[in-house]
Design a protein that fits this description.
heterodimer; A: 106 residues; mainly alpha; Histone, subunit A; two-stranded antiparallel ribbon; 4% strand; flat; disordered N terminus; B: alpha/beta; Amidase signature (AS) enzymes; eight-stranded mixed sheet; three-stranded mixed sheet; 15 helices; 36% helix; Glutamyl-tRNA(Gln) amidotransferase subunit A (chain B); nucleotide-binding (chain B); ligase (chain B); ATP binding (chain B)
């Protein structure tokens, strides 16, 4: 089943509530005012994207690789490590050799 | 003595080898040009000391009688999407402001190994998302070009590799790296009258390059002419075990293989690229390009790429979907900026960090990507787009049965004024109409300058080739270059 089954229905508009839900999924804090501004923009873009539904893809496989390539396997050996300082060098907050985050467990 | 900043990559390389000037003299000339061009805002970080160190190493090697490295004596610009060890790498975002990699990207390492020096990190659209370089956290890049109407409106250098384009056109560097996800090398090259090639997907390693859309992202060079693109591409390409999609193939000697003779080549003209509202001057340039190809010995054939009109909407599902996944890593924990409101828990911190750290266009694309991948929509949008992508690739495969290369305009307009399209994201997306199809199919494609429009602004022609046929693309580019005789340059005002 592709878009064909949905094409008969009118597309659901991207409204402010949808934008806030999506922003929540994307972990981006958003104000009501921002959501209200973004909703018509996204709705316009999604409306334009909707034309893809015209294409009959019933006999087409989705693309998985643009250029045929082999998935390589390498030997199961440790090839790096021992670079804790380098790993932590750009951390906003590092303590005792770990990344530090706000308290998670109350 | 000639101004060293007027020399091409080949000119600098050969002049250094011949002893006409030292590598240090060349590096100093470009460092001075960079320092004097702040008005263009092409660089986020300037690294004159890096350029001088590479130059001194080249001069010392020469004095010791060692064989010169391929790019000894040549300083270049590095798009700020490539991680550079010890030098801030931001992708033109606030969220990566201050990020100083402890490692070097494969492409930049290859260039340093080839003897090149770095003049600085070039500005770009934030996370390479944009077609006008107006989404950078570090401000717009200004094109050195101006319309000859005397209005002096600040023009876009194109995007996302706008800093690379502006810097090369203004002679701040002879060449630069670019990256191309949907046209980010070719469109800016066209807008400022230079050349740029996106190689076949997998030719250049993506390791250490800030990811936008991994199935589309490809690095490539931008330079003043086709020969320089060939030289740069040779240095940048090659198998990298650290990138799972890197092609395990030898790097051809593209520079040595250059030939403008198109005898026996069939050049396809895709009829679907004659889009509504295309300016007559672009249509005329396309016709001129066809004549140049005939003159070079090629046979011209009309071809059909029937799914062309669906390439952009498919791209605007696939690219944001991949971006929403790739950019999930910016969470304020391991690198980059962190925003921690008073009393915030971990989830609040993620959301606040990302709200403060990403610009509007980046947020827009993350939201589109999250939307099309969300439960209930995945098949209707993402799977459908990947199926359409298959059809677009099949269109090209069918075309290769009757032709060897395709010739099209690079962009549907000349450079527009900064601010002109900013209010309408969709209008901006449509600027990539001719470049996106080759990206979706992973094909090598390049833009070369063809001429100027009535306002005195550069226009580009695009050559698209079969997978791995960079040589064919470069050769056709050279045939155009020799016939176009493009020598116009922006008058210095900065």
């Amino acid at each position: 089943m592709g878009l064909d089954a949905d094409a008969s229905r009118t597309r659901m508009a991207v409204d402010t509530a949808t934008v806030k839900r999506i922003a929540g999924l994307a972990r981006i804090a958003i104000t009501d005012e921002e959501a209200g501004r973004i909703a018509p923009e996204l709705d316009n873009i999604m409306g334009w994207i909707e034309q893809l539904g015209e294409v009959d893809t019933s006999a087409v496989a989705p693309m998985t690789a643009v250029i045929p390539n082999m998935l390589r396997l390498r030997d199961d050996v440790v090839t790096d490590g021992g670079v804790r300082e380098a790993v932590l060098a750009n951390a906003p907050q590092a303590e005792h050799g770990f990344f530090a985050v706000p308290k998670v467990i109350e | 003595m000639t101004d060293l900043t007027d020399l091409t990559v080949a000119g600098l390389r050969d002049g250094f080898r011949a002893g006409d000037f030292t590598a240090r003299e060349a590096a100093e000339a470009f460092n001075t040009a960079v320092a004097g061009a702040k008005a263009l805002n092409a660089f986020i970080v300037e690294t004159p000391e890096h350029a001088l160190a590479a130059a001194d190493a080249a001069d010392a090697a020469r004095a010791a009688g060692e064989a010169p490295k391929p790019l000894a004596g040549v300083p270049i610009g590095m798009k700020d999407l490539f991680a550079t060890k010890g030098v801030q790498t931001t992708a033109a975002s606030h969220i990566l402001e201050g990020f100083t990699p402890t490692y070097e990207s494969t492409v930049s390492q290859k260039l340093w190994d080839a003897g090149a020096g770095m003049l600085g990190k070039l500005n770009l659209d934030q996370f390479a998302m944009g077609s006008s370089n107006e989404t950078s956290f570090f401000g717009n890049v200004i094109s050195p070009w101006r319309r000859k109407d005397g209005g002096n409106a600040a023009l876009t250098p194109g995007g996302s590799s706008g800093g690379s384009a502006s810097a090369i056109a203004a002679r701040l560097c002879p060449a630069a790296t670019g990256t191309d996800t949907g046209g980010s090398i070719r469109q800016p090259a066209a807008f400022v009258g230079i050349s740029g090639i996106k190689p076949t997907y997998g030719r250049c390693s993506r390791w250490g390059t800030v990811a936008f859309a991994s199935s589309l992202d490809q690095a490539g060079p931008m330079a003043r002419d086709v020969t320089d693109c060939a030289i740069m591409l040779e240095a940048m390409s090659g198998f990298d075990p650290k990138d799972a999609t890197s092609l395990d193939l030898p790097v051809p000697a593209w520079e040595a293989g250059l030939s403008p003779d198109m005898t026996g080549k069939r050049i396809g003209i895709p009829k679907e690229y004659r889009v509504d509202g295309m300016p007559a001057e672009i249509e005329a340039l396309w016709q001129q390009g066809i004549e140049w190809m005939r003159d070079a010995g090629a046979e011209i054939v009309e071809v059909s790429l029937p799914h062309t009109k669906y390439a952009l909407p498919a791209y605007y599902i696939v690219a944001p979907a991949e971006a929403s996944s790739n950019l999930a890593r910016y969470d304020g924990v391991r690198f980059g900026q962190r925003e921690l409101p008073e009393g915030a828990n971990l989830q609040d911190m993620y959301a606040a960090t990302r709200a403060a750290g990403f610009g509007d266009e980046v947020k827009r694309r993350i939201l589109i990507g999250t939307y099309v991948l969300s439960a209930g929509f995945y098949d209707a949008y993402y799977t459908q787009a990947q199926k359409v992508r298959t059809l677009i690739a099949q269109d090209f495969e069918k075309a290769w049965a009757v032709c060897d290369l395709l010739l099209t305009p690079t962009a549907p307009s000349a450079a527009f004024a900064l601010g002109e399209k900013q209010a309408d994201p969709l209008a901006m997306y449509l600027n990539d109409v001719f470049t996106v199809p080759a990206s979706l199919a992973g094909l090598p494609a390049m833009s070369v300058p063809g001429g100027l429009d009535g306002a005195g602004l550069p226009l580009g022609l695009q050559v698209i080739g079969r997978p791995l046929d960079e040589q064919g693309v470069l050769n056709a580019g050279l045939a155009i270059e020799q016939r176009a005789g493009f020598s116009a340059r922006a008058e210095k005002w900065w």
